[in-house]
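Q: My labmate handed me this sequence with no annotations at all. I'd like to see what the chain might look like in three dimensions before we decide whether it's worth expressing. Could you predict it?
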Amino acid sequence: MTVSGIISAIIVGLIIGALGRLLVPGPQSIPIWLTIVIGIVAALIGTAIARAAGWADTSGVDWIEIVIQVVLAAVGVALFAGLRGRRSV
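A: Here is what I predict for the chain of 89 residues:
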């Protein structure tokens, strides 16, 4: 991954985190900065998975890569929201 790839993954990660949060039903008790971090991590991992599978280099929009990223972000948001909800204050 190049520097421009990492920067674009971070920018996409911001969007991916928001989309992932929208897919999780109900309220999530996690801060927005954690949603952004989850989106960035999901974008990076999703890109790595798509590259390893050979799906990242298409002539148009990499829809499969985006779907992988959004699903990973939704799973991450759901996991962290569940963990945070179990914590006693």
